[in-house]
Amino acid sequence: MLADIDSFRIYREETSAFVHVGSVHRDSLSEYVDRIYLPVANPNTTNFRYKISVVDTCGNESVLSTHHRTIFLQAKQGVGGVVNLNWVPYEGATVSFYRILLDSTGTGAFVAIDSVPGSNTVYTDLTPPTTTPNMQYLLESIWTTTCSPTRGIVTTRSNIKNVGANATVLRNHDLLNRDIQLFPNPASETINILYPSGFKKYQLQVFDALGQLVYNEELNDDGATNGSVTKQLDVSTFRKGVYIVNIQTEQGKSFKRLIVQ
Questions:
Q1: Residues 166-191: pLDDT tens digits?
Q2: What pTM value is reported for the model?
Q3: CATH number where 26 lies
Q4: Structural domains counted in the chain
Q5: CA atoms 110, 139, 174, 233: torsion sign
Q6: Backbone angles phi, psi at 233, to 5 degrees
Q7: Which of 11, 18, 75, 256 has its CB surrounded by the most CB atoms within 10 Å?
Q8: Is the pLDDT of residue 61 over 80?
Q9: What pLDDT shows up at residue 166?
Q10: 233, 195, 196: which is closest to 215 by C-alpha?
Q11: Are residues 176 and 224 in the same domain?
Q12: How far apart are CA 14 and CA 9, in angstroms?
């Protein structure tokens, strides 16, 4: 009975084993965003399989459900200006067809331009826009079945893939993630956060292992030397444990693991 359910546990596949990454109370919205467990899930670089279980009020846990796997979309320009899409297909529900959506303005206004059978994993846009460099593609699966959770689910969507000028944004995000450094790590008193200069805005956030925000500050790149800035942060009042350091710019986020001991 529903009254006997305490919570739902979410599991993610890691090296052929499913590990517990989070929980959702039965009174909460039936939704979980995978953004804390390390390595941090990034839908633009990979995809994962997920399972869930049910925990009752006595602490007993059910067997794990069957898995669902997210869609991982890739896109690149080909000979003659065409755009070639390919993707890792959705798993967990039968896909009737995939809908191809295009944002030709870079503003997030996606429009369906075509569809392909659910057995397809490739598509070529033969007539992409030639007047704008800011194209973004999105794949939407249409299932043959539906369910009725606290949020109506009739489809699932892939990551957004940029082609053209927006690809520069992704390259800048990769550079941001690569160039941010924390030292010393582990730390007990202070840490130095080294981050690259050149972005318009920076927001520093630190989350504990439960996903609680414990520090928040807006940064800048004043005093940049050799293209980088160092921010010193006092962690002496933090409890011992694992933390996630997030630096967000106008072109994305970067997550780093910090250990306080």
A1: 444 444 555 566 678 889 989 999 99
A2: 0.59
A3: 2.60.40
A4: 3
A5: positive
A6: -125, 130
A7: 75
A8: yes
A9: 45
A10: 233
A11: yes
A12: 16
